Amino acid sequence: MLNLDGVSAAYGASRVLFDISLSLKEGEVVTLMGRNGMGKTTTIRCIMGLLAPSGGEIRFLNREISGWPPEKIARLGAGLVPEGRQVFATLTVRENLVATAANRNNRENPWTLERIYDLFPRLRERHAQMAATLSGGEQQMLAVGRALMTNPSLLILDEATEGLAPVIRTEIWHVIEKLKAEGQSILLIDKNLSVLKRLADRHYIIERGRTVWSGGRAELERDSEQVQAYVGV
Ligand SMILES: Nc1ncnc2c1ncn2[C@@H]1O[C@H](COP(=O)(O)OP(=O)(O)O)[C@@H](O)[C@H]1O
Ligand SMILES: [Mg+2]
Question: Using CA positions, which residue lies closest to atom 18 of ligand 1?
């Protein structure tokens, strides 16, 4: 479904990505791990078309998408829950959810407002409230709901539970588990290694703009010291 091969990227003269390779098959939950500043968000920005890669290939749903504008990549089927949520502050919860809603790939059982409200009852209670007035946790629920409303083939979460209260984190993990059980393909960034271990099928580690390690559950167990050294503080 998604395949990055030797992707490089820069912000102006400052090179940040040198050699990112990763792949994700339909229905998989794959993580992108690595310490702060290693290039995870930049990789996501390249996938979403928010930053044009300077080299390498990005294939998504059998198309070479590097250099495509973000709207076109979103339309093809990539949905992002961005780092720091970035909900539309001056729109209501409901308006946020319908703003970019679409069933582009004619899913059989598409996401609707009602289904999102069933997934996050808190959003139903707050549906008429301005997004700016929500707690961080509620904003993250809204960001997830907004991405789902585009019925993405691939859902990408950049720092899924960063800065959230423990009880909200648990709720977000529970929802991600539910989505996985429904077959949703997910690319996941988070720092909670123990949850990622349990939840994800495969992992990639990025170190200074390069993919330096990848593996599934067994490899993660085998290389646990090395992995800890890469992602640990
Ligand atoms: N808009 C930007 N302009 C210049 N440098 C940036 C910008 N955004 C991120 N960087 C730099 O790129 C590197 C990778 O950042 P990022 O992809 O955000 O890492 P991560 O998500 O893994 O924490 C860091 O050194 C960061 O300082
Ligand atoms: Mg980041």
Answer: 41
